[in-house]
Amino acid sequence: MALKKRVPMLEQSPEERIKNFSEVALGYTEELALLEANRCLQCPTHPCISGCPVEINIPAFIKAICEKDYKKGIEILKDTNNLPAICGRVCPQEKQCEAQCVLGKVKGNDSVAIGRLERFLADLDLSLEISKHRSDTENTGKVAVIGAGPAGLTVAADLARMGYEVTIFEAFHRAGGVLIYGIPEFRLPKDIVEKEVNYVISLGVKIEYNQVIGRTIPFRKIRQDFDAVFIGIGAGAPRFMGIPGSNLNNIYSASEFLTRVNLLKANEFPKYDTPVRIANRVVVIGAGNVSMDAARTARRLGAEEVLVIYRRSEAEMPARLEEYHHALQEGIIFHWLTQPVEYIGDINNNVKAMKCIKMKLGVPDESGRRRPIPIDGSEFIVETSLVIEAIGQKANSVLRTGFPGLKLNKWGYIEADPETGATNLEGVFAGGDIVTGAATVIEAMGAGKRAARAIDSYIRSLKRA
């Protein structure tokens, strides 16, 4: 009889991991993976596939694990997912494929741990020498991809496998986008990202680093030199609350804080010349995955006390439960139904405290979550000398100057067809956070896959004309 509860994954103890940046979750051994894979019912309706934005044949790769045919399982994964080791670590499977699992809907049973099994197979693949996967198909056209994040890497890999000559233009000196600068090493090791980027390169994709379209290369030239263009530059501009005192020193956006640590190695200062200040008490605003990352990073950098302040309750928290539980284990303190209203500075304009107000929940707002309402007279002071705001991000203003003629919506994101990624400019497609606003890695990859199919169709139509 199959186990009712999913097989636990090995991980570092909280006492040990707060002292290092090594990966917290250690993955399944072969024995554990086989135990978990054999929980899958192999149901004929396979609703789990419909819950996956890139439509991985989940029952098939799990069946391959059960049969110990790992090569076949890897081939099934790679058939639709170019970045499985990344997805196996950071996808919100509990809200996607695993939420649809038939076993999980049976009282007393957990859904199959699909993400952990995906990671098990992908890590096996990474441990082997990456073979060349360059397509033998005759070159069918040239495509420029702007941005080497999840959407850009996916569209590039899919088109390369179709036989296209693909060049990615990346603004940073490393590929991966938010996978590199946004997600900490302890949740997604950089060498995992690098190996999967190398897989994309092995398909024949070229990457030109340190290129900012509109600055180092005109958008006009990109359009002239390629048959089609895909824009997947993400939405990395920070968003601040804008309350009184926001201009005080030592108030970071989460994107700046995490980029300093993840991409620029501020945690290894002075070995790397990128300092980041850490106080004894750090306050993080917001309760999404980025907030958890920022809070847990501050803890590892030496903060004795890290508070997370969120205006709604625990039930409305957008972070993955797994990351929340890891944060609790690491001693992060949560203040629910609390909203900062003012920062208070010292004589040197450094933040020294923040005024907060307690909230209560009203009727649901446009997001479907209950609207937080201030409670009059409930203000109180929280002392802190370092604040990290993790309340979301917005589109980079470079779109308005670097991409002339491109139609944007009122929030500054690119207007694009949700099914094809087509924009108002002929031959120009877009997808990922720069179209939808902040979403998940796998949703960005799904947009990349849809755009790849649309770009292929578009270029073939040009050749038929």
TrEMBL record:
It comes from the Bacteria. Residues 17-125 form the Dihydroprymidine dehydrogenase domain. It holds the Pfam family Fer4_20. Signal peptide: none annotated. InterPro entries: DPD_II, FAD/NAD-bd_sf, FAD/NAD-binding_dom, Helical_ferredxn, SudA-like. One of its GO terms (molecular function) is iron-sulfur cluster binding. Residues 142-448 form the FAD/NAD(P)-binding domain. This is Dihydropyrimidine dehydrogenase. The lineage of its organism: Bacteria, Thermotogati, Thermotogota, Thermotogae, Kosmotogales.
